[in-house]
Amino acid sequence: MNLGPINFAAPETLEAEKKRKETLSEQINELETSLSKLDEAIKKIDKESNKTFHECLNSVNKFLEEMFPKLFGGGFSKLNLLDDSEDSGLVLMARLPGKKNTKLSQLSGGEKALTALALVFSLFSINPAPFCLLDEVDAPLDDDNTLRFINLVSEMSAKVQFIFVTHNKISMEKSSHLLGVTMRDLGVSKVVSVDVEQAMELAQS
């Protein structure tokens, strides 16, 4: 029986392959350990994110319970999860004074604006910035709704400075300071500044 030529380097080759196998096995174990730790970290992050999300949602709803009635003279609004899944969406429910729960699509332009403002102010109240910029949010509001909006802004202005663009006379009258931009000459703008409180004092003196 002829087994062919003898490979005298076989023992060294076998030993080298054994060492290579050991190295690869160690690397596999390290990778499996790393994957396990990564999986645990992801689960921990997901758990903390879910907790933070629900805490934030509860805080928003707490402020909504305060903001919505002030803007509508009553009623109730709440952010609800669409379902119990982790990636569930949110739906904003609004119940106007004297009415049943209403879809936002069924609200008038002014009602939609006030509902959106209630949500924005609620989100803003969780972590307020030094100032809040609003651009013609009072445009679709009637006089009564404008007054409620301005009263809420005045209340919140104790902690936050509000800057808003408006063409509404009621909003202007309730503001503490006005900046107007005029264009007497083509292409040349002029800024006019009025301290409303000071102007009223002068008018009454």
Structural class: alpha+beta
Low-confidence stretches: none
CATH architecture of the domain at 15-127: 3-Layer(aba) Sandwich
Proportion of residues in extended strands: 15-25%
Fraction of residues in H or I helices: 40-55%
Rg, Å, rounded: 33 Å
- The counted number of beta strands is 7
Polypeptide structure, described:
With 205 residues, the protein is of the alpha+beta class. It has a domain of 113 residues: P-loop containing nucleotide triphosphate hydrolases (Rossmann fold, 3-Layer(aba) Sandwich). Helices cover 54% and strands 20% of the residues. It is built from 5 helices and 7 strands, in the order H-E-E-E-H-E-H-E-H-E-E-H. The strands form 3 sheets. The protein has a 3-stranded antiparallel β-sheet. A hairpin with a 2-residue loop joins strand 6 and strand 7. The radius of gyration is 33 Å and the shape is elongated.
Secondary structure: elements and pairs:
Elements (H helix, E strand, L loop, with lengths): L9 H63 L3 E6 L8 E6 L5 E2 L6 H18 L4 E5 L7 H14 L4 E5 L3 H6 L2 E9 L2 E8 H9 L1
Helix pairs in contact: 1-2, 1-3
